[in-house]
Amino acid sequence: MNGVRSPAGRSVRGAGRGASAATLSDVARYAGVSRQTVSNAINSPELLRSDTLSRVQEAIATLGYSPNRAARNLRTQSSRLIGLRFPPAQEGTANALLDRFVHSLTETSQAAGYHVLLFSGDPEDPTDQAYDELIRSHSVDAFIVTDTYLGNPQTRWLRERGFPFAAFGRPWNDADSTHPWVDVDGAAGIELATHHLADAGHQRLAFLGWESDSPIMDDRHVGWQRAAGDRGVYAVERRVLDTVEAGARAAAELLDAEQISGFVCASDTLAMGVLHTLWHRQLAPGAEVGVVGFDDSQVAQVVQPGLTSVRQPLEEVAVHLVAALGRIIGSGAAEADDESDQEVTEDANDESREQAGLLLSPTLVVRGSSSRKS
Amino acid sequence: MNGVRSPAGRSVRGAGRGASAATLSDVARYAGVSRQTVSNAINSPELLRSDTLSRVQEAIATLGYSPNRAARNLRTQSSRLIGLRFPPAQEGTANALLDRFVHSLTETSQAAGYHVLLFSGDPEDPTDQAYDELIRSHSVDAFIVTDTYLGNPQTRWLRERGFPFAAFGRPWNDADSTHPWVDVDGAAGIELATHHLADAGHQRLAFLGWESDSPIMDDRHVGWQRAAGDRGVYAVERRVLDTVEAGARAAAELLDAEQISGFVCASDTLAMGVLHTLWHRQLAPGAEVGVVGFDDSQVAQVVQPGLTSVRQPLEEVAVHLVAALGRIIGSGAAEADDESDQEVTEDANDESREQAGLLLSPTLVVRGSSSRKS
DNA sequence: TTGAAAGCGCTAACAT
DNA sequence: ATGTTAGCGCTTTCAA
Q1: Could you tell me the CA-to-CA distances from B94 to A297, B65, B110, B299 in Å, in that order?
Q2: Nucleotide in closest CA–C1' contact with B75
Q3: pTM of this prediction?
Q4: What is the pLDDT of residue B75?
Q5: Confidence of residue B373 (pLDDT cuts 50, 70, 90)
Q6: Could you please report the per-residue DSSP string of B29-66?
Q7: Residue A180 pLDDT > 70, yes or no?
């Protein structure tokens, strides 16, 4: 009472294109059980008697069966897809978080049974329908939002909509948010950088940040203030555009007017500017002037003599974001459950009241640009 | 025998989470037409009388209706999703094509009614089931394959399977392939670079490539041979590891032993190595020694004094790949139709026999590292 | 030009 | 522990 179809099942494969895959019914017939039993073998194997289970699994393997995603999605009202807006590459800067983050997210999601769906759209455009369209068409089960620093209208909108999402970045200007988020402690990173330069013997330090009232910048600046205060070194700061040229100009000015020997930069781009000035003046990075950047970009890794930089643990960020989504998907959207494992790192003194938030500590990757002062 | 459901459909929206969206039936009822008519309004609007059409469209707008993807996918046996393996970030190198390419792909796909689905997997592992699993579950309609240089087993496997895909990269070692591909003419890029340095007055040129018998490397090397031959300059070449350190060492050796004043590098990573050596020796990039890299990475853009580099037109690559997929999806998989617009650029003399292939020309982005010899 | 019927492949609920 | 029934929301015949 089986075998009837088995040759057919095989022959389709050789037939060339299309290769119309086996369905649940095919497997059921082949294994001599009902369709529901096959479904159970996949989704609730503990319900089957072990001999039935192995017979079904064998049939599945033989026929090369995988459940049709569309059918399953339709039935379960889910897509097993996580939406991520993929922003344009920022050229001319050293910002290079995206690759590492997206790869980690892809791997982590896949391990959790999800895939990442990429879409594009303008986050500054209020008429942008990208998120809405994906939600209404049930194309994704949740979003990962990465641009919270824009005071992101999308974030608020998603919350109001009650659609599941998790953010890479704190809800800076949205006090009553309840969505899960993961962020990296920028203040702690800059503290690390500052202490590192002070430890290396630099007495006159400067902080180089970018203009604008971005909360990310403020955060990093807080770290500077804390560390510079702690160490009692001579400390000045400048805010300029986040470009190589502006960083170079600021460095020149700070060297001349303030005899700075240690530069704590809020970005690798600015740090590259500092290195340019040192190069022009024949000053040796590391030996004479210490420089630290932020983000551990490829630039930091390949520039001579290596740029010491604060590195964000993006792999961890991805892991925690996916875990957070797993907790809220299907369980009431924006309502984070307060009793589940809420971790807050030791750095998060001020933030420990945050709900569903997780603040990770960055590390400092030390390279030639900050080797011990001679 | 209807109507029973209507209040439920609406009221859910206010109820908070879930926001179970409107369905075709809701729209049909609201507009006073049959479900089929609504479907036609969306998929074949020309079939409707204009007044019916506008009434339906109004209903769609009012109810905020979008077709349920899963249902549509199930019915049409398609997913409107393009699979792309997202490889791990290569740290310590200047390879930075991915961001630009993926963003372009995302935008282009979206414009064509597709989304990009990311997955991970080990392309070197023959037991890796990532592609197979996605195909069998009907999760994607096609793939974009980017790692053809591996002599990619996946590529051959996909072809045998008859599953639609397009490749970024020529089918180097798969003569009888028939899949569409788009590639960038590396030989032309290196020719551009070489002529550029010769034009700047450099008489003693070196080509710095990486070891291994990668066909990509061979391609670039061909460009070197052509251009160096044309110009009759003194020309030497070296193959080393594709690292900054190896590039630096090779440059030192070439400066000492060959008095080279122009370096044509097969990667930005190697070019950075050359710049390091110049920096150590207080030689001015551009003015004294010309250096050109390949890929126009962020590193090239921010390093002092700017690294001249060959830039791949990734946006165009994405556009043509998506266009190619559009042609083959649903129309018999791997069978490219020979009469559709096959474009081959003027550089593709040798390749003009290629089927379904498109070779794009890179450009040279000139920066400080190759400014005219004084 | 519009409507009715059927079914894509799966899983949830119930019955056995 | 396994089978039966129903239906997720859509589009593709076919009929009116």
Answers
A1: 10, 46, 29, 6
A2: C8
A3: 0.88
A4: 94
A5: low
A6: HHHTS-HHHHHHHHH-GGGS-HHHHHHHHHHHHHHT--
A7: yes
